[in-house]
Amino acid sequence: MNFKKKSLFLNFSGYTIINLLNSLTPFIILPILTWNLSSNDIGVIDLFTTSTFFLTPIIGLCIIQSISKLYFTIENRKKYISVVFTCILILGVGSTLLSILGTYTFNIFDLNTDKKQLVILIVFYVFLNLIIEGFLILKRNEENLKQFAIIRLSKAGLDIILSIIFLSLYNNYNVRIFSLFSSSFLSALFIGYLLLKDKSITFLVDKKLLNKILIYSSPLILHTFFNNILNYADRYFINDYLGTAQLGKYSVIYQLCMVMSLLITSFSMAWTPYFMKNMAIDKKGFMIIFNKTFKYYSLSILIFGIIIYFIMPLIYKFYVGEDYKVENTIYLALLSGYFFQGLYRFKVNQLFFEEKTGWIASLSFISALINIILNFYLIPKWGLFGAAFATLVSYIVLYTILELLLSKILNDDL
């Protein structure tokens, strides 16, 4: 069986370059933020982005995640994609209208005018990014690197340009939020044009197909929500126990450590459609390549994490600024957490292929619960290191339980 290793290598190389350029966005903007804004302002920006992560599975019902698997198993792909984007449109517009009615007409939230506008902006921002991410997953499956690159890089470029311009004129965290929103709005507008231009994708609601999509994606709502707790709940604990200024410092080191996700995400973008397609063709034969690839992948992210750890002091000294420096134990814990996250993201594809999305949701719930408990006890005692250590322990537990579940599947198949 020829599994087209050359195709995987070319896609991995392409996604790595694209993600490298895209990942430069927060790192280019980061020193501009630290030079022009206070750590308190950066903490507020972090709370904005964190809120969007928690709302995404609620508004989008994780429908776009189904593209990663169902795209390869549903025969009428064009009909399926039409139903997916129709649902995103209905859910996004409906959520935006409800947020307007809730904040202004019914005044559900006791907020001032600026905060009401921010709530609506967050909901609409989530809607825009559902369109963008759904389109990008589709292009990955189609192995259409050209359109993937255009959308991903143009959005990143707009974000950088707008942030630089506005932050040079106004020392206010609102301009950073405005830049994030504007780049997403223009990108989603362009995607809308591309979808309308492609006459094969139409406005369509099919109850039978929609039911199949929801059966697959509904457990992922809980999975994504709990996964966001694991990744971002510590922000709220830090803000409450240590203050927004300390949250700003944590946000900076978290973004710096996220450079490790470049390798993880780049590989995942190329690997996931490659894995799903070939598992559907020859599951038993492809597992030989799967296990061999995992060994090289694990070693690569381990070496990458070690390199980042040793150059981190130089990044603080020459790029971010000493005012935001934290103890090395904090970024050691975060980088180690990313390592186990990388192992998890590679192997969890097996559960997605087996359509064990309920198991995935349970895994996320367990790790999220552990993370909340550890944050509650460790942040008041150990400060920022407590948050980082809680993240590390949670990912170790998550990966360990995943391996146990995969062992069970393997034994059942024998």
UniProtKB/TrEMBL annotation:
Membrane topology: Multi-pass membrane protein
InterPro entries according to UniProt: Poly_Biosynth_Transport, Polysacc_synth
UniProt keyword annotations, A-Z: Cell membrane, Membrane, Transmembrane, Transmembrane helix
Main location: membrane
A cellular component term, taken from the record's GO annotations: plasma membrane
Pfam families named in the record: Polysacc_synt
Residues annotated as transmembrane: 12-35, 47-68, 80-106, 118-138, 150-171, 177-197, 209-232, 252-275, 296-316, 328-346, 358-378, 384-406
Localisation: Cell membrane
UniProt cross-references to PANTHER family, sorted A to Z: O-ANTIGEN TRANSPORTER-RELATED, PST FAMILY PREDICTED COLANIC ACID TRANSPORTER
Record-given protein name: Membrane protein involved in the export of O-antigen and teichoic acid
Native species: Maribacter stanieri
Classification of source organism: Bacteria, Pseudomonadati, Bacteroidota, Flavobacteriia, Flavobacteriales
